[in-house]
Structure formats: C-alpha cells, structure tokens
Amino acid sequence: MKFIETETLELKRSTSELKEAVISICAMLNKHGQGTLWFGIADDGAVVGQQVGRTTLKDIAKALADHLEPKIFPQITAEAIGGKKCIRVDFSGKDGLYSAYGRFYLRVGEEDRKLSVNEIRRLVRKLDNYAYPWGTEASDQTVKDVSTATIKDFVRRGRKAGRINFPYDTAANVLRKLGLLAGGRLLNAGKALFSRREPLTVQAAIFAGRDKLTFLDIQNFQGNILELAARAELYVKEHIRWRADLSGSSRVEIPEIPVRALKEAIINSLCHRDLSNPKSNEVAIYKDRIEIYNPGRFPEEYSPEDFIKGSEASIPRNPLVAEALFRCEEIEKWGSGLRRISRECRAGGVKVEFRRSKGGFFATFRRPEAGAAADGFSGTTQKTTQKTTQKTTLADRMLRAIAGSPAITRTHLAAQLGLSENTIKEYLAKLKTAGRLRRVGPDKGGHWEVL
User: Does the pTM of the predicted model rise above 0.85?
Assistant: First the structure.
C-alpha cells in the first residue's frame, strides 16, 4: 500500500510530532470536516513503524482533548502494516471552526496554513451562509427509533467498499462509532440517515408536457435518506426510456440519460439539502427534461462551475451525513458530485444544467426528443446492420433476469441490476402485488415464476 499525503490524509513519523498532528487535524476539520492521520508513516509514504505502549493511544486522545476546540471524538486504533505497528486516527467534526493551541488553521494541499484575522472572518461568514447546525444537534429520538435493517445494510456496503473497518454488532455501537449519538439520543443527522420515524419526503412526479399543468403520476416517498435515495433512483430508472443494443455478443441496455449521473444528482440533493427545511426534495420528469430539486442554498461566493472544474474543495452543508454516505459508497468523494455528473453526461451526449434559486438548487437533464428516429429511444423497433433498439423498462429487465434464472437470489439480482437488496425486495413485492410475479416454494429452495 502506498501512502500519499492529501488534503484529508496526514502522515507523521511518530508521536514525537504530536503537536504538529493536532494542528493538522484542526486544519483538515476546518477545510473538510473529516480526515485520517497516521503515526508510524513518514511524509514520503514509507512505513517506519511506531512504538505503541500501554498509554500511547490515551496520550493521543488526551492531546486532542486538551488542545483542540471544540471537542471531537476520534477513532484511534493500532494497526500493523507490513509487520510494523502504526497508529491510525480517524476523525470528523460537527462544528464549523476549530482551533489548535488557541490558533486557527486551514488545510491547503498538504500544508497546514495559519489563518489571519480576516481569513477567519471570511471562513465564519461562509459557514454561517451555508452550513447548518441542525444536523449536529441532539434529536428527540433514541436508538430504538432507528431502522436496524438500514444500519445493517449500511455496514455491509461500507465493509465491502473498504470504508468501514468494523463489523455490525449493535445499532448503538455503529451509531456511536459514526459520531451520531449524544447522551443516548440520536443527532439529527443520524435521525435523517437511519430513523424509521418522522421521515423526510421526496415528491416524484411525471408530467404530460413541459410544465406542471398536467401530471400523469405523482408519488410522495417517505423514509430516511438512504431509503429515499434508493426509491427515488428506482422511480427515475423505471420511467426513463431505454434502448437495447444487440450489435455485440451480448445485450447492452442503454438509458436515455446516464444512470450514474441521475443517481449522483439524487444522492447529492439529499446529502446537501437543508435538513431543517420542511420542504421536500423533488424529482420531476417532463416530456423534454428531468429536474432534481434540492431545498438548500448553494454555497455563497461560488458557482457550480467552480466545483465542476475542481478548483474548489467541497463545502458540505451536512458533514456527518456526507461522511456516512461516503462510507457506504453512496458518494465517491466530497466535492466531486457536480464534476461526476457533468463527465457522465458529456460522455453520453446529454446536456445537463445547474441552476441556483432563492430557496434551493436544480439539476436539469435534457431528454432526447421522444420518437426521433435517430435516437433509438422511441417505442418502435429500429433495425440496421449494426444494432437493434427497442423500448424497455426496469420492470422488463427485472422480469427478464428472473425468467432466465428462476432460482436467482435477491443478492444476485441486486448485483446484476446494480441496485441495493432493499430496493430489490421492495420492487419484488410490487411485481407480486401487480400480478406479474409469483414465488413458488419457500424462500430457500424455491423459485420465481413470471406470470
């Protein structure tokens, strides 16, 4: 494993550099709200090892508690790399501005830069304009109010991605390790991510034309952020047009808008929304476009282009939510969402636009004109010497996969279609209710029958 210092990763040869380590943690918290620091690895990435005595980990925790304000609760562990002992410190912060030894620092590349008075004022003003304290405050809910299934699935996905290094034991322990519990109560960020009570809402609708005068379908999805992300993504996948390219040795299904871009826009709208705002997130499917609305202001003094070009680091409105979504691989990297959406759409030849409004933010994807012979997304079959295109839906894809392998498990079906197991479970129930699918025999040893 090669270690390279970044804006969220700092390397220290040993705990003799403990003061510098506290300053680095402060700087990373002020810039990104989270990070990782290693003792026992030189700044050139060489693993040199670190002596770990009976009180070494406690000494690190005490230095952070004594000299870093406001307080944080890092995860400090001793790990062996190539047979050499090292110490890993994972940390995240709820508050916007941190000081180390009474001074303020900001991470710039691999450097920890001391801030001037004017820079501190600007940073405070920026945080006041964008970051909201709601997510870091204690809610009225406890561990009893969380969805155990959602937390178990979260840990499973995080471990598979290599971003969670602990197994599921109890919901309380997972929440504690994520920094989402305070005095036995869920923080509001934890409530938004995992609660099964007082859900958030996504309003999803299909409109007949290019405005909101006539709708063909409207849904109000309720749940926590992770549940809503899966349901909103499924809704869009089900209602966009697909074409099947049969020119090669296997069937390739191509959506009119890149699914990865739509997924990224949906999860970003939930991650960066103003959680204290009762207004819903929205997914609107029009004849000529798909709009995804986030009820939260865009960062002051920035434009979407700043983040698309990658010239600015992420400014997460809800750092605890963003950190959790990163750990379960819902988001790839802080601050990369708009850039990834733009890249996917550019590769797919789809026009995407980002627009600020007084109360929120829109991502708009332009759809190919339905019925145009050139795009292959109409309901008709187009045959050429190179390809055959036809209309297909997500339901068709799921039923076709089941028909080809009646004994397929939910796990394998989720992997084949690129969806979560919870989403597959929900959608199988819908297909059974609709009379399109039947289960024959028990859950284990039985099979599916497409009707």
Answer: no
